[in-house]
Each structure stands twice: as C-alpha cells, then as structure tokens.
Amino acid sequence: MLNIRPIVVNKDGFILGGNMRFKASLEAGLKEVPIIVTDLTEQQQKEFLIKDNVSGGEWDWDMLANEWDLNDITRWGLDLPIYDSEDDLYSTKIESPIYTPKGEKPKEFELYDLSKYDSIIEEINKSELSDEEKTFLKITASRFIEFDYRKIAEYYSNANKEVQSFMEKQALVIIDYNQAIELGFVKLYDTLKTLSEND
Questions:
Q1: CB burial class (10 A; 0-12, 13-18, 19+) of residue 73?
Q2: What is the pLDDT of residues 13-22, one digit of tens each?
Q3: Bridge partners of 7?
Q4: Cβ–Cβ contacts within 10 Å for residue 12, how many?
Q5: Helices and strands (DSSP H and E) totals, the chain
Q6: Which residues lie across from 10 on neighbouring strands?
Q7: What global pTM score does this model have?
C-alpha cells in the first residue's frame, strides 16, 4: 500500500499526506517507509492538505473558518456545514463575563496602543508606492491597533450616553448580542450560507 501511496512531506519533514499511514507504519514496527518530498508553496501545501483529506476525517470548523480562506476550501472540494437556521449557530444564551466598573475613567490614550500601527505607517510612508496604494495600506494597517478592552469597559461605564451609543455601534462593548449581529459584527454564518448556496 505504501508503495502505491507514499507518505508526502514538505522540505521540513512535515507530513502533508499520510498521517494515518505513518502511524500505522510505526505501530507495525516498520523502520523505513517510502516518502515523497515536495517543494510546494505554503498555499499549495494548504490545498494539498484539504484535497488529500476531503474524503474522510473530522474537521475543526472553527479553526478552518478563522485561519483559512473559505472560498479556497470549497474550491478544493470540502463541503462546508450547512445550518438550517440562525438558531443553530447563534444563541443569546451566552454566559458573558461580567465586568464590574471600578469608578475611575481611564484617559483616552490608555485605551489603545498604536506602536505596531505607527511602525507600519512609517514603513508605508518611506516606500515608493503610489498615493493610492499608500492610502489603501494605511487603512488596512488599522487592524494592528491594539485595544485594552478592560479599560474600554471602564471608560464606557463612565461615558455619557452619546459616547456609549457610538461604542456599542462599533462593538467596543457588546451590551446586546442581537444588535451586534444585526450591525454585522458576526458574519461567519452569512459567509457559510452564501458559499453553500453557490456550491
């Protein structure tokens, strides 16, 4: 069997295909097994992993949704789970951590850390890119702004109603799960539904 389907590894020795065959070989006491060493790109390795395992095995759907491109996964032949209704995925019966305000309102500059963001912006500014490219990359660099959500919760508890309203709309604090879903902060269900309908 191993001669027909050798174990496939990348140049670092990571098994891309044949984990179960490798395990069975160890249990059988084999000292040598045929392997194929590939020199695939990271994207090609991901594609190989999905295609090699598409016919069986259990999938960690949360990990796939958070770390992989769902369009790629479906294009490679993996059927994503279909949810009959939003109730299958969302629940308002969530035990949320309860934050008890301490009474001191943090200063605005304490709520976020711009060090990584500033570093990226500086790099973009020094580049030879066009103004349009720089603008786009500066907008996407905002993903690297770090927020201190404990201090944000404290700030929220001491803010006026208008500021609180903006903070809720931006999901800096989530007071109402249904509102957060309606405002688009939970999008995985819609993504999965769209992909399954296009299959």
A1: buried
A2: 888 777 777 7
A3: 35
A4: 6
A5: 10, 5
A6: 38
A7: 0.42
